[in-house]
Amino acid sequence: MSAKFIPDDLDRRIISYLRADGRASLSRMADALGVARGTVQSRLDRMVDTGTLLGFTIRVRDDYDDLSVRAVMLIEITGKSTTEVIRKLRGIVEIRTLHTTNGSWDLVADIRAASLSDFDRVLRQVRMIDGVLNSETSLLLSTV
Predict the structure, then answer these.
(1) Angle at CA 130, nearest 5°, toward 122 and 47?
(2) Is residue 1 packed enough to be buried (19+ CB in 10 Å), middle (13-18) or exposed (0-12)?
(3) How does pLDDT run across 117-139, given as a tens digit for each residue?
(4) Which of 30, 57, 76, 91 has the most crowded CB, counting CB atoms within 10 A?
(5) What is each CA distance from 111 to 32, 71, 80, 118, 134, in whole angstroms?
(6) What whole-number distance in Å separates Cα of residue 4 and Cα of residue 27?
(7) What's the CATH number where 22 sits?
(8) What residues in the chain have per-residue pLDDT under 70?
(9) DSSP one-letter code for 49
(10) The whole model's pTM is what?
(11) Residue range of the domain that includes 104
């Protein structure tokens, strides 16, 4: 990785576009964002190279897979390591969303895993991240 990457407005717009349509072609993104296709390609390459983009995934309807394990994890972070912890957490595909919060906990993670063994692996991964001081996890049993 190179020097610290600080995304500008175009980078944020590209990320936002990808969140809405991760399968969009470079040409379609370029047209929608009002820039050249090569500009989108070079920006994406740079964001991947610097670790800003950790990968490309799909989004599935919440009710698509009722057999998955869902949980909410509250995470306490030590010192000033929040940015680095968030970067590492975003690399765990089972963490669907991540939120900062106030109070005793610093972050809230929405986790969805295919099985209990996958869920167990995610818990261990999160707890092994330098800067994670404590966590508390609640399984989501049913939607009411």
Answers:
(1) 80
(2) exposed
(3) 999 999 999 999 999 999 999 99
(4) 30
(5) 32, 5, 24, 11, 16
(6) 28
(7) 1.10.10.10
(8) 1-3, 58-67
(9) H
(10) 0.56
(11) 69-139
